[in-house]
Fold each of these.
Amino acid sequence: MTAVPDVKAALRTQSIELPSWAFGNSGTRFKVFAQPGVPRSAEEKIADAAQVHAYTGVAPSVALHIPWDRVDDYAALAAHARALGVAIGTVNANVFQDDDFRLGSVANPDPGIRRKAIDHLLECVDVMDAVGSANLKLWFADGTNYPGQDDVRARQDRLAEALREVYARLGGDQRILLEYKLFEPAFYTTDVPDWGTAYAHCLKLGDRAQVVVDTGHHAPGTNIEFIVALLLREGRLGGFDFNSRFYADDDLMVGAADPFQLFRIMHEVVRGGGFGPGSGVAFMLDQCHNIEPKIPGQIRSVLNVQEATAKALLVDAAALDAAQRGGDVLGANAVLMDAYATDVRPLLAELRTEQGLDPDPVAAFARSGYAERAAADRVGGQQAGWGA
Amino acid sequence: MTAVPDVKAALRTQSIELPSWAFGNSGTRFKVFAQPGVPRSAEEKIADAAQVHAYTGVAPSVALHIPWDRVDDYAALAAHARALGVAIGTVNANVFQDDDFRLGSVANPDPGIRRKAIDHLLECVDVMDAVGSANLKLWFADGTNYPGQDDVRARQDRLAEALREVYARLGGDQRILLEYKLFEPAFYTTDVPDWGTAYAHCLKLGDRAQVVVDTGHHAPGTNIEFIVALLLREGRLGGFDFNSRFYADDDLMVGAADPFQLFRIMHEVVRGGGFGPGSGVAFMLDQCHNIEPKIPGQIRSVLNVQEATAKALLVDAAALDAAQRGGDVLGANAVLMDAYATDVRPLLAELRTEQGLDPDPVAAFARSGYAERAAADRVGGQQAGWGA
Amino acid sequence: MTAVPDVKAALRTQSIELPSWAFGNSGTRFKVFAQPGVPRSAEEKIADAAQVHAYTGVAPSVALHIPWDRVDDYAALAAHARALGVAIGTVNANVFQDDDFRLGSVANPDPGIRRKAIDHLLECVDVMDAVGSANLKLWFADGTNYPGQDDVRARQDRLAEALREVYARLGGDQRILLEYKLFEPAFYTTDVPDWGTAYAHCLKLGDRAQVVVDTGHHAPGTNIEFIVALLLREGRLGGFDFNSRFYADDDLMVGAADPFQLFRIMHEVVRGGGFGPGSGVAFMLDQCHNIEPKIPGQIRSVLNVQEATAKALLVDAAALDAAQRGGDVLGANAVLMDAYATDVRPLLAELRTEQGLDPDPVAAFARSGYAERAAADRVGGQQAGWGA
Amino acid sequence: MTAVPDVKAALRTQSIELPSWAFGNSGTRFKVFAQPGVPRSAEEKIADAAQVHAYTGVAPSVALHIPWDRVDDYAALAAHARALGVAIGTVNANVFQDDDFRLGSVANPDPGIRRKAIDHLLECVDVMDAVGSANLKLWFADGTNYPGQDDVRARQDRLAEALREVYARLGGDQRILLEYKLFEPAFYTTDVPDWGTAYAHCLKLGDRAQVVVDTGHHAPGTNIEFIVALLLREGRLGGFDFNSRFYADDDLMVGAADPFQLFRIMHEVVRGGGFGPGSGVAFMLDQCHNIEPKIPGQIRSVLNVQEATAKALLVDAAALDAAQRGGDVLGANAVLMDAYATDVRPLLAELRTEQGLDPDPVAAFARSGYAERAAADRVGGQQAGWGA
């Protein structure tokens, strides 16, 4: 296997982005459960995110969701983040929480509503300029619920037109990360249902349009690591929205449902040159902590990604290549499984100690009393949440 | 095929139950879109449901959801329904919309919360007594999101205990209809995920516990009509929650996604003695009209069930039996497909005319001006909806 | 709805291609059941296919599978087909039935085996030249069964190289139809698992490389008609391999499992300009008649496609467009469903009579005595089948 | 976590049964690849199986498949096995590889064919008597491919009748293990598609009828460990057919596709009292080595089950229970994950050394030269395989 010092050196460069919305209340259509100490503002969300970085050392940036994180002074928000030791990362556009968007946003049959949606996307680029963000993440809830409801092809034309206008507005160091999703909230067609559709649109936009892989957005049985390998080969992997699922877009903690899949994904990332500074691949979390506490849920998720990465880095690439070329099915599989079977927790504890961190981030955060203080202090006001 | 007069006579006995909650606003976790004229009370929901019956003639009862339809005087509510030409049907218990139920209701690890949940179920039987309902429909959102979160077997024990207590409280003409669902809102285990689990619990309770098949609650690829045939053979098919789906529990209008599947289900119902007075099978709708208008959505759904039923009744049972016994694969399939390929809309229009109804319920309701009046009158107050 | 004469005129131009292998024995890994009268040669398969065309009038060509249909004199085979009233259509390459291909064909880690596979593909182009075929259909069983078994990216490189060599060999009026399949016989990765991968390869090859949609080759829940609309918009829909499925690649008769899906697909084909002479979209059947008789199974399949096409042609495009643009969800859906609910069998019977055919192809073939004669005559020799 | 000596003691009692057919050639409907050294007789299959036990120490029995393993003298076969250090275990009945079974075996519409099928099942009990086997494993390929093809309910009646006759024939220490499977080779209905159907039949038969869980026989998304917990609670878990899958019934090596799922299954087995002598749960492998060598493939599979078992035994049951009762979602999940993240290979190597085995069974078998000798010796004759 790869030498441990090399693995540690690589792990030191890792950077996982946290979603501001993971710290607010979330739930299903059946119920959003309120939790004590939940943030009431973008500033408090960033403060919570900064805790995750403080204990793990690998989560130095926070993604915003507009309008959920709309503030008057974005420069001040960015300064607030910096003061807490983190940066503002990707800006996520939200064009699905307005009654006008009942039949879609940029693909709506009504041109007035399309205009409103595009204007919101352009506003998001303004926010990017203000906070110094390079990534505009676009996920569209657009689609239809019933056969015949709208014209599949016309909706593609409208989508393409909107994307062109937004792409043209980007600064030279900014890019579009286009996300796909098979279904939900639309239940018959989704306008960007799969990686192929996202890829086809990106190709027409230009080099600064790339595909985002949300690990919960696929049909049952889809081989996600294959898509990762393909997009890296095409130079079109913009990043990940990590989470995990047993059934649909469950948005559970990444690594909770299928840690071996997460390892296989990270293996393809490492093998395809998607890991490390300069790779251009953004590693973002996008998940909901419906029933578990938010900050510990994020810490656990970050650790799960870090463990999968460590295992992927341990894979003996030379031995794997030799077995693969020799057609040794069991031998090649065994090389991969050796890395996966390794318990990397001691290695990571050591790495943290070397970085001046507590070897056990979960326990250290629990001991800190932050959660109790937040619950005591954050009284009154409106808890942040989906749609709030 | 079966003679048309016989088909018509059978169709005259059909009875489809409407869900009160289908007339309120609904949506996904991403957004609940508000619609004009939506009811603000249980009484207004029943009034809307009565419209569906007035135009279709086959929807004479309305199911309640407690606490969504909680009122001070249930006898008055029942009288209100009767005055509008409909009856109150099944009572649905809701033990998922309270912060206490974060980790489950009757299967919660906390005995105090279990008590609270059971007490709510018992209250629902009180409501049944008050409105004269024979059916208690139980669907539990209970389950877990993470491996290890709770003990699968202990949760079954708690569930069984709660069911026993509720079953003991039933009046002699009342029954439990136990519903199963693969996932959502729980994403790792659901305490009643499949028909087998519901069936095993019903067996232990007694004859007045039966299984409800919600057509959107299965794993991909599940053959629902097979389950229907099996439960009828076992005498344990309590009824249906009809809706349709392309992906998960999409709750689209029944018959919208796969009309052939609906026909196959109705074929097994007819073949297995589940159709007609005395069969004891309740045909209920349970769906959401997230983007389409509510009353027309219910009318369309009722018509879809009626059309599928008419086709199922048309199947030439003798010819089918002969082909099946003879091992004539294509011939037997052709007998079934002949009925399915038939356009039954003229037959149904004729039936409605004979019953003194407009042959086209959709157009007749649209012409009536009811929707416009509701939108004008129902101003102020809180629109009913999921959780309202 | 569209005027019936226009629908009939369009239907007269329809052309569905039959697969020679559908007339041989087929089965699952558990058992291939032998049937009486099954062809023993390519010539006999073509004779059977000609029967399907004789009774339906819409199946004027037969696809070959090489090496299953390998003969010494392809020009004679083509003449034999012409004499029976049909033409030879697409040539299908088969690089999966040789012990050498255990770890793949064009993507095999062994360069010698890759060479052998490519040579077979080039031989198929020779066959195309000899029989006058314009279409080379490529489906690769290539893939891996275990994580780590081979390098995903290297396999893509090898695949691309092979495709380039074959594409370069094509005559000016010939094209590659590249098929994708999610899984089977490979169970971890498939080298062309989805339309996106096929599309990406076709883009790099050139205009004469297009994607084939096999209706049984998708993950559960995939919206196939969406892919059809997309590929037509991109000018990359080469054709269909029609069949139907309830679970995986079941290869049942097209239209048997979900006739509504088949209608929706044909609706997108018609709407997107994929129907009619000059559209360049090949409508091929690719299915197995494991338990039902072969020729009647093909006749039923052809009729199913024809019925779905007739319904799609009946859709009132102007009314649909108006409802879609107006955001009338239920109205737009109703326009589509009106066409689907129509019983088109009388219209098709009429069309056949006008064409001098029997209005009921199934009954007419049964009366003809062909099946009985084939069973009596085709004694001795080796029945054709998968792998034969 | 549980103390290592206790874990080792428990592991010493483990017993995994090997399938004789895993040593023969297998494949998909597309191709069965021949491998060197494959057995040509039941005796050679047992010899190969004995190798797996010799190196792992936990695979002391071999299951037979009749008629694949039909011999003249079963007592001699049992003695042959004993001489090689293994025993003959479960007898598997095969009623799907005869042209008569095209439309089913015990559920066939033809009573003569049903009789033939039942007679074969009775013959299998004779074999059990002769070899001293206590388990009759029944899997039926029975089902239908097309809607209407046969009567779902009549098929259940026929199936029940056949099961009753076979059950009555069992000796007092013999039992029926009834297996279910969602689909394949039947593609519309399967007569025993899910655990609920198998369970309902077993209930009616009596205590000596139990359900077998084949880990590849479920719909996508099915929670298998939940079924395991339920069947153990009902006293109806007869055993496992282990293998793994990414898509359908892929029959890959157990633990290869989702090792975490295998661990969760073993956790429920241990928690529910299904592990250890006297539990009555049979741990069997049922898988195909289509592209990898057979004996090493079985060794790897046995090791995968052993590793998952070791991890399940390591789970700190007291800590888990406390966290679960306290509603500590993340804490309870962490207890489970701690055991899963542990690298148990050193513990298992130690255990083997204590048992006088080589710590690395894979390497030891490779060094032994057995495979090379088998390839040299087993020349001529017909290689065993599916259907052979």
Amino acid sequence: MATKTASKTAVKAAAAKKSASKSGKAPVANTPAVKAPAPKQWVYLFNDTKSVSKVAPTWNDVRNLLGGKGAGLWDMTSAGLPVPFGFTITTEVCDEFVSAGNQITSAIWDQALSAMKVVEKQSGKQFGGGKKGIRPLLVSVRSGARESMPGMMETVLNVGLNDATVEEMATITKNARFAYDSYRRLLMMFGATVLDIDDEKFDAPMEHMKEHKGVKHDTELTTDDLKELVATFKQVIKKETGRDFPQDVHDQLKECAMAVFRSATGHKAKTYAKQMGWKTTLPTAVNVVMMVFGNMGENSGTGVAFTRDPSTGNKVMLGEYLLNAQGEDVVAGIRTPKPITEMEKEMPKTYKQFMSITSKLEKHYHNMQDVEFTIEEGTLYMLQTRNGKRTARAAIKIAVDQATEKLITKDEAIKRVTPTDVDFLLHPQFDGEEVKKAKKEGRLLATGVNASPGAAVGMLAFDADLAEKWGKGEGKAVILIRPETKPDDVHGMVAAKGILTARGGATSHAAVVARQFGIPAVCGADMMKIDLTARTVTSNGHVIKEGEWVSLDGAKGESYIGHLPTVAPRYEDQEDLVTLLGWADEISARKTRTLNDKPFRGLQVWANADYPKDAERARAFGAIGIGLCRTEHMFFEEVRLPIVQRMILAKEPDAVEAALAELLPFQRADFEGLFRAMSGLPVIIRLIDPPLHEFLPSGDDLLKDVTNAYAKRKYEGISEDEEKELKGKEVMLAAVQQMHEQNPMMGLRGIRLGIMIPGLIKMQVRAIFEAACNVKLEGLDPHAEVMIPLTGHINELKHVQPELEKVAKEVMKEKGVTVKYKFGSMIEIPRAAVTAFEIASLAEFFSFGTNDLTQMTYGYSRDDAERGFLLKYVEDGILPTNPFQTLDQTGVGELMKMAVSEGRRQRPTLEVGICGEHGGDPDSVDFCYRIGNNYVSCSPFRVPIARLAAAHAALKHGIAKK
Amino acid sequence: MATKTASKTAVKAAAAKKSASKSGKAPVANTPAVKAPAPKQWVYLFNDTKSVSKVAPTWNDVRNLLGGKGAGLWDMTSAGLPVPFGFTITTEVCDEFVSAGNQITSAIWDQALSAMKVVEKQSGKQFGGGKKGIRPLLVSVRSGARESMPGMMETVLNVGLNDATVEEMATITKNARFAYDSYRRLLMMFGATVLDIDDEKFDAPMEHMKEHKGVKHDTELTTDDLKELVATFKQVIKKETGRDFPQDVHDQLKECAMAVFRSATGHKAKTYAKQMGWKTTLPTAVNVVMMVFGNMGENSGTGVAFTRDPSTGNKVMLGEYLLNAQGEDVVAGIRTPKPITEMEKEMPKTYKQFMSITSKLEKHYHNMQDVEFTIEEGTLYMLQTRNGKRTARAAIKIAVDQATEKLITKDEAIKRVTPTDVDFLLHPQFDGEEVKKAKKEGRLLATGVNASPGAAVGMLAFDADLAEKWGKGEGKAVILIRPETKPDDVHGMVAAKGILTARGGATSHAAVVARQFGIPAVCGADMMKIDLTARTVTSNGHVIKEGEWVSLDGAKGESYIGHLPTVAPRYEDQEDLVTLLGWADEISARKTRTLNDKPFRGLQVWANADYPKDAERARAFGAIGIGLCRTEHMFFEEVRLPIVQRMILAKEPDAVEAALAELLPFQRADFEGLFRAMSGLPVIIRLIDPPLHEFLPSGDDLLKDVTNAYAKRKYEGISEDEEKELKGKEVMLAAVQQMHEQNPMMGLRGIRLGIMIPGLIKMQVRAIFEAACNVKLEGLDPHAEVMIPLTGHINELKHVQPELEKVAKEVMKEKGVTVKYKFGSMIEIPRAAVTAFEIASLAEFFSFGTNDLTQMTYGYSRDDAERGFLLKYVEDGILPTNPFQTLDQTGVGELMKMAVSEGRRQRPTLEVGICGEHGGDPDSVDFCYRIGNNYVSCSPFRVPIARLAAAHAALKHGIAKK
């Protein structure tokens, strides 16, 4: 490696000379007064650190100049790593090449030849051979564009072999087979790549030879076979092109370089660029790299390694190698490679060097590396290094370890981990191989919307009651399958391991509940025909009966027949994740932005939780507030639903009041639990939101029952009991029909309901404050925030809020204690966003209900769109993404931005958050940071993801202006 | 009237004197170097034109200073009219009065006394009497606040009578009865108003006296009776207050003035102010006016008159008078007044004076006047004049006539007429008396939303088929009554005289169709129980059967039992209206505003029309474009619906194409008719908008039918035909259920449908362009504008519009002719408004669909809201108005404003209009003008109203900046 730094400036000197001679003037040396412009440098040696740094100050510049591969080789060489010698003809030449009519100008080529001279010096070898006792210098010629363009890369290996050097090589290496095998490869590649001869013309004689010799693999061919093939290949070239294979190695080199440049504007490249949506093809560089061989004997070898375990992230070198072998031998699998640790015994010195190099590599790249190396007669060459691919688990462990080792900063560790990594770690997963197998065996049942991630396995149950009976009662693993779910299915949903529906999308009832409870779900799998009478599902050619086993991948939106094995991790056990997200929270707690010209901390992560146990889980996951407690979920519980129905059907105010009085203690108890679990932290409780008919049975079912009963009465007569039952159903049907709305999502819901039945929300507010006072009296610290849903006009708040605040004050007076509280509004009606300045005159906080806001802003019914046109829209690229999954920043986001800025103009201290399904989506979290939200609130299971995303946002955008 | 101008400055002089004497200094006269500040003037004579004009330069200032009544008296006097003499103590005194502890300070009172001296001089009479042979001066004391406050006005008449002057009066007038009747009135009013004695204390002895004398009317009491009453009333005052009625006339005057000032802050005034939402009560002025008497003999009299006929607007004086009578005699109806024309014979000189005065009055007020006058012994006094109330018809005629007479400008004429006037003129109306009678007799059937104005009478028909059969087939007058209407009811709706529904509001299907066709409708009359089986409606205690007569007032939202008579006008016959709206169009054609710094004309009025005959009607009504042709309405016609259903149910693309090919000629023929009717004017045709299930039967009905058929099959067996019918219904039910959407308004509609079934809109565009080309080839000039509905994302246009433009070009090439055309988009999804900059990159015009935009921006389902919470919201003032009737400028309007400005930023020539139901609402038209719309489009019947409203907007806001 002593020669490595030699003659770095030779190329430049050559360039200067040529330039001077072309312009007809002698270079003016040492005359600073009239300094000649430096001639353009077209060629850079791998070790030409300074010149490159000068013209290309940033890594991006280097990449643009030298192409991806050239930049990598240059960078490794600069870092002092043992890289085969070589040089790069820059991407700029590619344009020159085209301008010159697909020719490399002599000014450029002279620089390449000078560089080759340096490489000869560096390696001590001669290109074209003839140096006694020393192997001729062979090189590979490789393309390398600014962006990786897989499949259009042109490469020719073993350039430098000809009829003479092949013999030198055979003699010196004492391995004629190796020499001729290399030669026939050069002929094949040169013929195909440079001379554009159909591969088939070379493959046919080779196949013919193998057949003739009765062998199966190329490796079984003898030296003589290969010599014969070399002769044949030379004839093919002559026959196909009318010319001989060039014996002049410099001609070989130039033709290869030209072939690479040609390929940059060739048909393949154009097609690729078009596919990528680029306006033009990308220019490529040409890399000329000294060939090294690991099959030069027992002091040679080749291998691959990861600097840390890519599966677990543990800090152990993991790799394998083979002595006296080439890379392809490892791949071919004829010989079994040894674990890298054995190298320590076999080649202790090289092993030590390798370990030192990989340690250096980690330091240079600040990351775990995936390396390829070759040992040629005792000399170690690093052929490639790159950041190693790793599992989610390893990504997190490596980030945490490297930060602990001070190899990277904590900020860097946070940046290194993706939300997908965190997501992956927290949901049970199937073994990928098992999934492949199942698909191969035709056991794919159905695909749908990936509504709630995670893997689940269970027996199909076709209704919620059965799911509860099996799941809760008998402890069986159940998958609940339904055409779609409704609020009264919830008891069966929470008892199931997974949920599978034929209708509804990512924000359907099934999906929302599933994510809320961390239950894997596939929704809207509309290829399924569910027969609720026969208790069968027909899909993808299968008919599956109730009780049969099904596996369900909620992250992929797929379900399979049978029982696939799963792995289920626990957050608290994920030490590294817990550490990492602790750092994330530290970042989010920094005052990284400004609000009203004052420093303002990053985004907090809160959770949506309806029950105390959800709140506890949310807190365990790191949530520091409850952003949404949906009070109506409490109404669906078995004991309570009849009371709620009684209230709805009541004709007299007294009966309504009586039912509400019965509900009060239930709600109060729920709220007490929430406040206890979240003592010291804010709890936002939303007043009743859904339309009342959701608490009543389905109108279609009632209509069918009633019609059937009429028919029975007509034809057969019915009993007294049946008559009584019919009467009840008639009353219920009349109520359901009277309450029926064409578009219930835009109907009597939220605050509208509160205004029509003021007693209902007053009861809820009373329950909230009684609970908060009771918990305060226990010595805890409840923070109650009462949220009014579906506000569209400030007058709605004016009508309701003072009355509710009065109730709050009354209760605190009764209890003789005061608690911290706020009153605020959901922002989910576009009009509320547009008139935010007015709304904030009463609302002390805003919480964006982005599900509804998206629904109304787009005019897409959440219940319908995802099983209808919306899927096609996303498929056809009419929409970039499903706006119910990733926030539509251009439309919905613009309204949010307006609302935040107008709201804070009215009330500078306005607390702003988001509690829609987007709260756990990383892109949406980033957006919420940018528009100035105080927090995002999401389902407990997505809290870790949101914590990471919030820190990412702070690192990306967070530069406090003051 | 010679004395009228005398001593105008006496009051000021008195004020100066008093002020000077108070300050202890002599007034410094004629020493301009050290001029003393003018003492404040608290009292103004009616003829003190100059002083008032100086301190109150505008009419509003005068009104503020003198109060409404005072200002009127001052103004008439200034105009040289014979008004009784008098003066006003200003409203400013009212505040002084309160500050001084409910006292009139002597500085102020001295000014009043001085003014009274002037009035004595002007009238030649003495206040308190004693001037030989001349009647004592009597005055009335009247309140008059800045705003009219009906019911809280305090008035005392005949002030100046006492035991002495009553005798003088009796002697001089030779009418003792008159004198004592006047005196007892003064005593009653003074007692009640000034001394706060209960009316009852005076009424009781009076009733007692009448009973005792056996008479019915006050007028039948004799002089002696009245003398006795005067004595009794004086005793009442003494008994109730412990003091005597003041005999000093100046004391009477002062006490009356104080009573008026007290009343301004009294209980009644406070209650009234609270009702009106004023923060404080309003101050009042006190007007002291000389009493004049029309019952002084045959050369006296009294009367009222309108300067033009307030009913027809004809230019004839219309009024009546009575000689030797007081105003109350006219009212009491004991004597029959004579028409004013007879005065010419009876009092030719006075008549001439009266005609000259009223002509002067019209010129002064530039308007038709409603006057009251009294002739006292040959002298004419104008007691009051005000702009006369008039019917809508008269309003329009008078405006046109007065502009033609150059009494007012055309602009003024336009301002004078309200949209309500125009509306009233164009819809059949009931006689108000008949309506009162019907209500009194308990014949009110039901009240609901005033969905489409006009009066209609007909026989109830309970379904559309019957309505068509009776209405179209048998030429009967029919009122169609339905729980709600659906598109397949349209044939029956258009055959009906009126529509009555139990469900749905101002933008329900029934309401929109009704307004579209100018059919009166009352919707959402939910007190009605409609029994479709029994064919009866039960409401308001009545049970009405099919075929019974009902009358329906669409403007009031009321319906009555029985046949009320109506009047039905025709636009073309309304000559004055046609003239007036011609002027309105001239105003709208002025370049009254700027767009991109260039002058830009006012708002055009276009119409929504689906059929050629609608377009013709719209053009007759003055529309200069079609802003919305709803192509889907054409699909509901009898012959076409089965083809549409076939297309919807088709499983194979070929079958879809075949059905579309069948529809093409129908659509083309419709469009040809439209283009012919609107040659030279733009016609915007909207591609299909509603969800497909609207073209299929009701799911509930199908479910009931199928369930019933199953039951019949089970219990009784069914025939082969029935089995076949069942099969068909099963297929239809399955399709309906499969297509069912939870919220169809936010579902598969508009462009979404166009993207899912591209053949459908391509067929429509082909039909549009084939029609346009054919009409062009006939020598006419079609302007086709193709409108894409429900756009929410620019990519939707990108996906569809180029394909449609291709079809357009293809057709024009086939036909060998080019036509003028544009492609544009509805703006009805909030997101389209928010991203208008993007949308305008493809859309050449925007048309606001404010029905849907309101629906989505508010999150109010149009189909449901108006029968639910929305009515309560409007009732309780949570919403100022129903946003489906009057555009919500703060919310929805803000989005529109944003869309116009962003759209024009992208495309400065963007054509912008509105085609929602608001297009015909005057306030909304005003808003559309302000945000820079090019046109509004409304139903043909509202075009005249919109034309007037557009001109109003131009006059109000239209000041071109450049």
